[in-house]
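User: Can you help me understand a structure? I only have the sequence.
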Amino acid sequence: MKTPVIKVNPDFPETDKIAQCGAVIRKGGLVIFPTETVYGIAADFNNPSAMNRLRDVKKRPPDKPFSILIAQKGHLSNYTSRCDTAIYKVVDHFWPGPLTVIVPAKEEGRTIGVRMPAHSVALRLIQESQCCLAAPSANLEGQPAPRTCSEALKDLDGLVDMAIDGGPAQYGQSSTVADFTQARPGILREGFIPKEDIEKVMNMKIILFVCTGNSCRSVMAEYLLKKMLRDRRDIEILSAGTAVFVRTPASAETIHVLSREGLDASRHLSQPITDMLLRKADLILVMTGTHRQQILEKVPSVESRVYLLREFASYSGAGGKDMDVPDPIAKPAEAYEECLLTIKDALNKIVRLI
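Assistant: Let's start by predicting it. Here is the structure, written out as tokens:
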């Protein structure tokens, strides 16, 4: 019996068609589908019967594991407890895209491969399946990975329950596989993304400043440190706020005091702290103890990387509230000037330590 083929628009996949395929997967079926790299076979990762059938169809050895697909970057933390900055730098930079990361699984002693594809059909299928998807390439073990649906069906017609034809895969080359299970990350398979590109992202150091609205204190710190470290190409400097709900410009007073330092913050837009932003930062500098508490409530595993900015000041006070950088919002211009001087004092020491 031939495998039914459903043609979909690769850019705007029809929801009803993808939902039909998702239902097949939930019932233990196998579905061929497109990604930006090659065509794959989707199966319910947590259904032993489906996984045994997938292994039989692929003719894959029992000791070779399957990777899974996710539809959102942040879902990586559902499958691993590892919080190394290198992992999250790489996935935030290259996902969605042709990169698979091998990470320690939450189940002790096991590892798992995870990828977020950059293909509308694949992402919609993950969502509509409502389960964890195993997704190896749609070929027999040892054969070339297929770039089209017809190439996939050459060997698999009648062996899978349904196939989605979304046109040719963009790259026609398997994803790069990066291994983060060892102390020193490595590349297990070089695919579309070169090893050098991944290593460059991994080796970038990220400094994140955090305040409440990301409109004054953290903005001052970000722009001042960028100026101080303008010759350092290995450092990325960011800022965010714990209470940002709508992206807004920096305050007029902040733009003014920074302009007197020769800095233009007129194009700055606030951004909220996110799990991904916190997990990829090597150093997180907060303005108050409350900010630190809010961050640790959100992502406890970054505790060793979070510091009060005034811990680096030449005079930091006696502790407690004296360690906070006061919020100048709605205060006279002098408060912004004093805030900037306090921040600059701390940054002078940070620059010497980096």
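Now, to help you interpret it: The chain has two domains: 5-200, 204-353. Residues 5-200 form a domain with the DHBP synthase fold (CATH 3.90.870.10). Let me know which part you'd like to focus on.
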